[in-house]
């Protein structure tokens, strides 16, 4: 692999203890969503627009196994907590037919450019937005197009997302998804308090509606069923959160995924100051305890809990990204693509409008807004950040992907997490301990590229990131970290 030359900012080294503290100070942004502030930290690696086609073709040339993500930017309503690329719901009906034509056009462009017929798909997610909102025939179109464009790995499962309202009110649509070969479905429940759901902009009709949705999903034949729950909202008490988890358990999903609210870039951004780090940690601990007591398993730091023995619970697409760092192609508005050495973002994410995406495809161009040719340190940071979805870094797959060991690239950081009891060797992984899971934001920052570490060190603390004196004292006692109030 030929890696880009790192910028001066990505050739620096910083004391692990300082970076750990910076990750904790900026706990609202130090997470798996990497890179941070890419307009500055990734700027040296931005590819010129006239070179998009050549760099993309070269970066995918030797890749044989990959994932596919298709983004559907339609929702019945835009939730206040949403950070994703979703268009104005009022435009859904008149935009849907044309949008799926654009998706097929983008796929055809990649078929020619990177020779997809030689690529093996190891995972395929249809996400959004709410892909289940689209017409059944449109979802069938993209499934059939993918089957024609790629080789499917035997046993590979396709996953799709729905809402409780669609699953409860349109059972024939859920049945159709299963009949077209989609085997895994995920339903966004988020919260079970009606008053909080309304504040968040959720269309939620109570627990009986959730039960009806689950009955329809099971009747359709889905045996891989996940629900999403969210915590860390302003106005959400720990008891509210416990109630959501307990009701989620009552639904008897095969998997339950817990998401912490990420405020930046959402309609609730101003409320971040109302949620303390210690309450967030208390919620995470409570959710973990309730799920384990109910028979759902997950190692420390992993946010998807499974009650099926031997099944990690995530889609094949995400599992391969997390464990192996498998490259993936993202199609659609604002979608992200990752080869071994390039990171691309499609047009339309900023304005949340189909127009710029459409304009590129109509002129025969790749609909890419930004393309980055990464150096080794940045590619490693990207893989490791995503690895923390499972709370661990697979050492074997890291070495296979980069040709070096994790310890040789991050000697001081590995020494720090081991000495502080934040991570431990478990099988062929370096895994979070229960203590490390509580300060996950500091741990993950240790493995960021140097430019991102510098950004965390220099970034002012906003109100939503301040920690109480009690929380700081606890951290000092445990890790002797000097934190800024």
Short structural description:
With 485 residues, the chain is α/β, with parallel strands linked by helices.
Would you mind describing this structure in some detail?
By secondary structure, the protein is an alpha/beta fold. Helices cover 42% and strands 16% of the residues. Strands 1, 2, 3, 4, 5, 6, 7, 8 and 9 form a nine-stranded mixed sheet that branches. It has a three-stranded antiparallel sheet with strand order 10-11-12, with helices on one face. Helix 4 (92-114) crosses helix 13, helix 10 (238-250) runs parallel beside helix 11 and helix 12 packs across helix 14 (376-387). The longest helix is centred in the first third of the chain and has 23 residues, at 92-114. The mean pLDDT is 93.
Q: What keyword list fits this structure?
A:
2 domains, 9-stranded mixed beta sheet, 485 residues, 21 helices, TIM Barrel, 42% helix, alpha/beta
Tell me the name of the CATH homologous superfamily of the largest domain: Aldolase class I
Main sheet?
9 strands, mixed
Report the sheet-strand fraction.
15-25%
How far is the first residue's CA from the last residue's CA?
Answer: 44 Å
Topology-level CATH name of the largest domain: TIM Barrel
Shape: globular
> What is the correct CATH architecture of the largest domain?
Alpha-Beta Barrel
**Residue ranges: pLDDT <50 for 5 or more in a row?**
none
The pLDDT mean sits at: 93
Counting helices, strands and paired strands, the structural category is alpha/beta
Give the helix proportion (percent range).
40-55%
Number of domains: 2
Helix count from the secondary structure assignment: 21
Radius of gyration: 22 Å
- Write down how many β-strands occur, each being a DSSP E stretch of 2 or more residues: 15
CATH class of the largest domain: Alpha Beta
